[in-house]
Amino acid sequence: MRRAALSLLVAACGALIAGGAIGAAATAPIDDGVTVAAPAVRIPANSRPPTPTGPDPALLVSDSAWLGMQTYAGVDQVQGFEHTLSLASCRRRVATSCTNYNGYVPITLYEEVEAAAPGFRTLIVATGYNDGDARFAEDVEAVAELARSKGYRRIVWLTLRSNVSYTSPGDTGFAEVFERSNATLKQIVADGTHPEIVVADWATYARDQPSWFAGDGIHLRLLGGYAAGDYISRKMAFLDARACPQPAYAGVAPLDPCPDPDEHGPVIDLASIYPTDRGQGLAFTLLYEGSSSWPDPPWWESAA
Fold first, then answer.
1. Which residue has the higher pLDDT, 70 or 236?
2. Region label for 192, one of left (φ > 0), alpha (ψ between -120 and 50) or beta (otherwise)
3. Model's pTM, two decimal places?
4. Could you tell me if 91 and 186 lie in one domain?
5. Residues 94 and 3 in one domain
């Protein structure tokens, strides 16, 4: 069944590239026993990013939600574009960050952009779980204005997973807050005020994937670390109108151009292209193999 569902994605996207029709959905189980309901793939034949800029150097800033990519040896699957990952527990957008588990207060998203080395052209925002929503629009405006002044040409802003039990320190962020923040982000983009901002709808993509997350619904476990890195790699490839860095599953060619993962949903066979059988029971130690090696081979290929 898994191969049939993923073959449908490959065939459907191939039909898209040729201008053909897209087929219906199927159900694709992942190797850990969880069944993923694959939505119908309906990517318009003319669906392309408005202004592809090529694989620009990117700065990805996250709070602890995506820190699991580092914890579980998953950073190497962020592929296809030059990037720096800045992942920190308790980070906030603009307001002073909260104090994390070891007493450290990380710099904010705004301060990361302000302090980053020159040369980045894309900012990927994967933070917000420690923030309220009262000043969300103002925060987006502040970050966008700063990024523009620093020479960034594009901001890829991830939605926040909202079907969660997580409550941030000080009770500033929780499920309803994340839903309202997502709605505001989408409205800002729809209004066209900041045409450089692109929504990456991680919240919808990851909504029905409990095996990817710890019990709070936002912190990544092993499979989630691979899913997050794979997702943003495909999203960036779509935005740049280039080939996917990885195939939909082992044994087939990567699609070129890469379809939008927000359109086809979580139908990628992660277990066939990444070493997902390693370390699911690891403690939260911040120890990992690899250090985002792209364009060099990832650690699991280098060790083979």
1. 236
2. left
3. 0.83
4. yes
5. no
Q: Which amino acid is at 92?
A: R
Task: Report the pLDDT averaged over residues 2-6.
Answer: 52
How far is residue 52's CA from residue 230's CA, in Å, rounded to a whole number? Answer: 20
- The arithmetic mean of pLDDT across residues 204-212, rounded, is 97
Looking at the predicted structure, is the pLDDT value of residue 31 above 70? no
What integer pLDDT is reported at residue 220 of this predicted model? 93
- What is the spatial distance between Cα 135 and Cα 114, in angstroms, rounded to a whole number? 20
CA-based angle 145:148:151, to the nearest 5?
Answer: 155
The verdict on 55 and 95 lying in the same domain is: yes
Assess whether pLDDT exceeds 60 at residue 50. no
Residue 183's domain comprises 49-240
Same-domain status, 247 and 195? no
The residue ranking higher by pLDDT, 35 or 79, is 79
pLDDT tens column, 220-260:
998 999 999 999 999 999 999 999 999 999 999 999 999 99
Establish if 228 belongs to a structural domain.
Answer: yes
Closest by CA to 291, choosing from 116, 66, 75, is: 75
